[in-house]
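User: quick one, sequence for these tokens?
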């Protein structure tokens, strides 16, 4: 990748010439009638999952859509206030909530190419009422949280990994999206990187709008040390790797 020119790297954004594609593209696993990959990363059977607030019980977020669009901006200054569990539940549901699980995909609250849903949502929690600080993963199929592990001095560590961006350290919680490319590659083979990137942008925009709806702030971050954060999250860096961070915190009344 680093040996290519800027113009060569632009090709990633284009759709393939179909004649070329048919010559070079491998047959997809879907076309070979192979079983699809799993669409939710497993967790230990004896895990005690943490219940989140059900979407049917939300009491927040009833805002005008046009107001949210007009107000939306990247926010980097957060107060020291804690988020509550309903606020965190709202953000998780609006970014990766599951409406229906299919045989070969997942219908979520956000669209995804071919319903392949190529992300896992990790959270570095610092200040959420009722949750101890540490690394969590959203178990979206049941709308619950799985506590992965404690991270010593997580606020400073994640900030250091993000090249000392202070607002990462000051956030109440950092959303960290992990790509599992095989889910999209199952159907789309060499088209997949572009489709995954588009899917990621949609997920992050939902987080922005959801934050605006409940007086929180966020900002998208793609500037971090890849190897260090993958190692911290115990990811292999090939079949699973972090693709974006988004610190979230309370902001002064808009």
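Assistant:
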């Amino acid at each position: 990748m680093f040996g290519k020119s800027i113009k060569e790297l632009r090709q990633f954004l284009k759709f393939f010439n179909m004649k070329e594609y048919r010559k070079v593209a491998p047959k997809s696993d879907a076309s070979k009638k192979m079983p699809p990959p799993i669409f939710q990363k497993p967790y230990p059977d004896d895990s005690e999952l943490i219940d989140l607030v059900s979407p049917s019980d939300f009491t927040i977020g009833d805002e005008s859509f046009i107001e949210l669009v007009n107000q939306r901006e990247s926010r980097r200054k957060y107060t020291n206030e804690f988020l509550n569990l309903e606020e965190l539940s709202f953000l998780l549901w609006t970014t990766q909530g599951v409406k229906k699980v299919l045989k070969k995909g997942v219908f979520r609250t956000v669209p995804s190419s071919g319903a392949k849903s190529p992300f896992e949502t990790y959270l570095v929690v610092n200040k959420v009422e009722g949750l101890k600080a540490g690394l969590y993963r959203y178990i979206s199929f049941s709308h619950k949280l799985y506590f992965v592990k404690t991270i010593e001095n997580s606020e400073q560590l994640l900030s250091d990994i993000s090249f000392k961006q202070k607002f990462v350290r000051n956030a109440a919680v950092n959303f960290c999206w992990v790509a599992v490319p095989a889910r999209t590659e199952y159907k789309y083979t060499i088209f997949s990187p572009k489709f995954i990137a588009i899917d990621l942008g949609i997920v992050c925009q939902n987080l922005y709008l959801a934050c605006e709806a409940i007086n929180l702030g966020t900002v998208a971050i793609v500037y971090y040390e890849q190897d260090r954060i993958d190692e911290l999250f115990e990811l292999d860096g090939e079949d699973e790797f972090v693709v974006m961070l988004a610190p979230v915190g309370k902001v002064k009344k808009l």
